[in-house]
Every structure is written in structure tokens, then in C-alpha cells.
TrEMBL record:
The keyword DNA-binding applies. The active site is at residue 12. GO terms for molecular function: DNA binding; DNA strand exchange activity. This is DNA invertase Pin-like site-specific DNA recombinase. InterPro entries: Recombinase_CS, Resolv_N, Resolvase-like_N_sf, Resolvase_HTH_dom, SSR_resolvase, WH_DNA-bd_sf. It comes from Agromyces terreus.
């Protein structure tokens, strides 16, 4: 049986596109039929169905191909688990065309160094995000999720609620929002009324 190239691609959000990774994998020789994907899942999430399928498809002598290491794993522990699974199956790993044999000590060392760099990059992104949020909060720009209903709409909803002639479902339909929004609005406005 011929050794196969098994491709894996991932994007963290549903707004992102897998096209560039698919093209890169095809350029590296992966048949489109053997490209497995995860959409809207972060690299730190280990429960990735596309990755599970890709690893399950790998057989002795095959090569798992990814465009970049951070598409495969964003933590050292995750990378180690994947490498251990590849090693047990005698499967090589190709990162952007550079093939690493997990059975080879140098290949294993290079992979672990790359995994540490990916984890470091992930930590930097988290740190920059926290820093950006702190700056935005200090400048008063970070206010959290805004209510679905405007202040006048919230007052009107409360008037109708206090009148007692409408159910929560009817109020939700009147204001074209979910019932959960009606419940949150009533809770929020009740707290405001109690403090005034």
C-alpha cells in the first residue's frame, strides 16, 4: 500500500476562510480528498473532529501535512500528545513542506522546539489581548455587550410588564427579541427601580 499525505487545516472563527490553507496543502501534494478541516475551533481546543478524523486516517508510513504548526497545536502538551500518537503509528509530520520523523531524535527535537514557539506565540497573543482590553477599559471604550433594547424601549417594556396584560412570550414578540432578552431587561430594570 502506498504512503499517503493526509492534510489538516483549521481556522479559529467562522468568519475566517480555509481557502489559503487548502491551497497550501494541495501545493504540498495533498489530494483534496484527504484534507480534513475544523472551522471555528481554536488550537487550544483538543476536541476537534477534523483533527481526530485526520489522525484516524493516518496509517504506518503516511505523512500528516499542515501548512503551519499553529494550525495543528497551540500548546506544548497538545503538540506532544499529537506527536506521541503519530510516533505510535509510525507517521511523519510535514509542517509547510519540512518533514519531521517523530522516530528520529533530531526530528523530535525540532518538533518540540517548534511546539514551544507556537505556545509562546499563543501566550503573547493572549497577553496583548489582555493589555488591549485594559487600555480600552481605562479609556472607557470597553463597555461589554450592549442591551438589545434602547432605554425608551426598556421603559415601555417595563410599563407593559407592570400592567400585567402580556406574557413574556408576547412581550418578546412585540419587541422582536428573544424571551431571554425580556427576562434580562426585567431583571436589570427591577434592580434600577429598587436603587431609585
Amino acid at each position: 500500500m502506498n504512503a499517503l499525505l493526509i492534510g489538516y487545516a483549521r481556522v479559529s472563527t467562522y468568519e475566517q476562510d480555509l481557502t489559503a490553507q487548502r491551497i497550501a496543502l494541495e501545493r504540498l501534494g495533498v489530494d483534496p480528498e484527504y484534507i480534513f478541516t475544523d472551522h471555528g475551533l481554536t488550537g487550544t481546543n483538543r476536541a476537534r473532529p477534523g483533527l481526530r478524523e485526520a489522525l484516524a486516517a493516518c496509517r504506518n508510513g503516511d505523512t500528516l501535512v499542515v501548512a503551519k504548526l499553529d494550525r495543528l497545536a497551540r500548546s506544548l502538551r497538545d503538540a506532544k500528545d499529537i506527536v506521541d500518537e503519530l510516533t505510535a503509528k509510525h507517521v511523519k509530520l510535514s509542517i509547510g513542506g519540512s518533514v519531521h520523523d517523530p522516530l528520529d531524535p533530531v526530528g523530535r527535537l525540532l518538533f518540540n522546539v517548534l511546539a514551544m514557539v507556537a505556545e509562546f506565540e499563543s501566550d503573547l497573543i493572549r497577553a496583548r489581548t489582555r493589555e488591549g482590553m485594559q487600555v480600552a477599559k481605562a479609556k472607557g471604550r470597553l463597555r461589554g455587550k450592549q442591551p438589545k433594547l434602547s432605554i425608551p424601549q426598556q421603559r415601555h417594556l417595563m410599563e407593559l410588564h407592570h400592567a400585567g396584560r402580556h406574557t413574556t412570550a408576547e412581550l418578546a414578540e412585540l419587541f422582536n427579541v428573544a424571551r431571554s432578552t425580556v427576562y434580562r431587561t426585567i431583571q436589570r430594570q427591577t434592580r434600577v427601580e429598587k436603587t431609585n
